[in-house]
Write a structure and sequence with these properties.
By secondary structure, the protein is mostly helical. 65% of the residues lie in helices and 1% in strands. It has helices at 8-17, 24-30, 34-60, 69-87, 93-116, 118-142, 166-183, 190-205, 209-227, 237-253, 261-266, 276-286, 315-343, 349-364, 372-383; strands at 301-302, 308-309. The chain has a two-stranded antiparallel sheet. The radius of gyration is 20 Å and the shape is globular.
Length: 392
């Protein structure tokens, strides 16, 4: 990539990251292909091997690597999801052992921050997501209707997954690139400007309104913070988080979508949000069936068109319905601690953009599912202390 150089010493660590961010297209292709099933299995095996390596590294360095509160809460969140699935009777082997890869991933992140420094880790993620960003943009431009030449965008399979899946890779690159620029006080930023434009154009090609709106919000946040000498000093993370939580509650229960119709029309949507209001209503009625531990991993919603929705198109509601209030409570506590961690940081532009990164991902998750690995990564960033910022 222009302006970004990958050093030989970073290649191995980048390869150790990629299995945790397996392109979503592989699971889509694996449903009808033995070859892609094997490829998906290879990614899973790589995740487990890497996880075991870093679990062992962490245990061997137990005297020097300490766990902060957000690290512990992320681990608890994963464990509670597994426990809830066991108690509601939906646990299966693959989901159970996924806890190993999540915990191993968390240990890997902490190990790198401790031994390499936060600046190094941010640079590493920027370059890893940058690879996905470039191939994702190119594939969308070359195959605007997906690799399968679909007649509809909803059935299209792009290199990084469905029409909405590319967002996580675009968001990852733009987030870490922006943080890298701010942490290193870089002046020349033409590449990130072009990257924001490319990501928004690609989202429009895929007809992913949620992706476009989220990237636009992140773009506005980045430039407001980068060019301002005051805005970033007056951002209250905990207040913004509480306001966000109230907004989500009112959106799901209070039926306030109609109030946002003019805004939604700007991005080509109406107050039903492509039928999400129907899914949310149906999912909300399931909560009373199993409030504490949820209804199970395989909870489905049958739409009026007879199509099957495998998730609630809202990460928080999906967590509540499938894994219960116990899991949702752990998630909300982790978010609050993350906001508190950011509040305790020095009031610089890095801190300001990190608030924007976290809230953009949380807002996107109101209308879609989320990559758990990506969410954990952003949460862990809020727990990385100032003394780890220098590359060692």
């Amino acid at each position: 990539m222009i302006g970004i150089r990958i050093r030989r010493s970073e290649i191995l660590n980048i390869l150790a990251l990629i299995p945790f961010f397996e392109p979503f297209s592989i699971s889509l292709l694996a449903s009808n292909s033995t070859f892609w099933t094997v490829v998906s299995g290879g990614f899973a095996l790589a995740r487990y091997i890497i996880s075991y390596i870093y679990i062992l590294k962490t245990l061997m360095s137990a005297n020097t690597i300490k766990f902060n509160s957000i690290t512990i809460l992320c681990i608890i969140f994963i464990i509670v999801r597994i426990a809830a699935s066991m108690l509601n009777g939906s646990l299966y082997f693959g989901f159970a052992i996924s806890a190993i890869s999540y915990v191993g991933y968390i240990f890997q992140f902490n190990y790198w921050v401790k031994t390499k420094g936060l600046s190094y880790v941010i640079s590493l993620y920027m370059k890893m997501f940058g690879i996905f960003f470039v191939i994702g943009i190119i594939s969308i431009v070359i195959y605007p209707n997906g690799l399968n030449m679909s007649s509809t965008k909803t059935q299209a399979i792009y290199l990084l997954g469905s029409k909405n899946s590319s967002f996580f890779y675009f968001f990852g690159f733009l987030s870490f690139y922006g943080l890298w620029i701010l942490i290193n006080n870089r002046r020349k930023t033409i590449l990130i400007e072009l990257s924001f434009v490319a990501a928004m154009v690609a989202s429009l090609i895929c007809e992913s309104s949620n992706s476009f709106a989220s990237i636009l919000l992140l773009c506005i946040t980045y430039f407001c913070i980068k060019e301002s000498h005051k805005i970033y000093k007056h951002i209250p993370p905990r207040f913004m988080l509480m306001t966000f939580i109230i907004f989500v509650a009112m959106l799901l229960v209070g039926n306030i979508l109609k109030e946002f119709t003019p805004v939604l029309q700007l991005i080509g949507r109406d107050s039903t949000l492509s039928g999400r209001d129907y899914i949310w209503h149906e999912q909300l009625t399931m909560i009373q069936n199993s409030f504490l531990w949820g209804n199970g991993i395989n909870t489905r919603t049958t739409l009026m068109s007879s199509a099957i929705a495998t998730h609630a198109h809202n990460f928080y509601l999906d967590t509540f319905v499938k894994f219960g209030i116990a899991s949702l409570g752990c998630l909300l506590l982790a978010l609050y601690v993350s906001a508190a961690n950011i509040s305790s940081m020095s009031r610089n532009k890095y801190r300001g953009y990190l608030v924007g990164v976290l809230l953009t991902l949380l807002l996107h998750s109101v209308f879609d599912d989320v990559s758990i690995y990506l969410l954990i990564t952003v949460l862990l960033l809020t727990g990385a202390r100032k003394q780890y910022m220098k590359v060692k």
